[in-house]
Design brief:
It contains four helices and four strands. The protein is mainly alpha-helical. The chain has a domain of 156 residues. It is elongated and about 185 Å long.
Length: 342
Amino acid sequence: MDHLERAKREEAAPLIEAAFQRRLVEEKVLHEREQQLEVELSRQRHDGDLKEKNRLARMLENKMIFQESVISRRQAEFDQRRVEREERIKQIIQARKQERDIKRKKIFYVRSEEERIKKMRKEEEACKREEAERRRKEEAEHKAKMDEIAEKQRQRERELEEKERLRREALLGRAPEGISRPSELPAGSRTTEPVVLLLLLLQLLGNMFLGSGEKGLKALVQLHLLNLIDGASQHPRNLTDGLLVAGLLHSNLIAGNLIAGLVAVGLHLRILIVWQVVVAELHLQIRIVLVVVVGAARQNPGDLQGPGTHNAVDPTADRQMVGWNECRNFCTWELRMVVNDK
């Protein structure tokens, strides 16, 4: 099979070579013909172009004028656009520069403001610490001063109490022998029965009056009270309901008005105390002087005798007179102390 194919190719090889040579000759002739045709066409186009050139040569001057006008116009546009571009570039550069300057200024302002705020806060904190320290020192000094004042006040009160105690002891030691103190009255003269038991608690104006000018008022009140007791003792026969003495109130105001009165009605003596207190101050340091009620409740008041007489029938009348004397002695002793204080 291979030998047959090879034999065919050996026979066909010269035929293929001859066909190739013939084709080369034909293509060469065709190429030369086309070259000549192209040259002829090119010569014709050149001749036509020359004719066109000669025809258009008359328009060359107009062409140059138009060309120059176009070139000049375009050059002007170019120059204008270049100037505008340069102006825009300058504006952009200036704007960016301004932005950079503004940014730097903002940064500088922000930093300066932060530093100022920090400094101000530090100063405020320092001022607050100093103020707190100053207040603490002032409070400590004020507390120390108040403690010192309180201590001085307590010391003064102790000294005043000691002086008052010594003064009272001295006054008690200087009391006249003729004036009997309530504690020095004879035991037989005291009465525990409700015949004429009169306990006159005269803590009158102990610390109620401010200053020594009011001691005269204290003496006047006690004198008035003694007169009331004397007046009541003059009518023992009519003393059936007893003696009612209620106290005297005092406020710190000089305008305080104290009225005490006794009223004798009919044959029976009744002692009444009328109170009238005008107080114009809220803080009233009220001291109450109580005069305890003692009444003689006898079924037969006609049996009572006058003061200083002995009733053999009813010894209660004698005890009643002893009670009156005890009350008078007590008031006289208190009055003497007031006079000595003044």
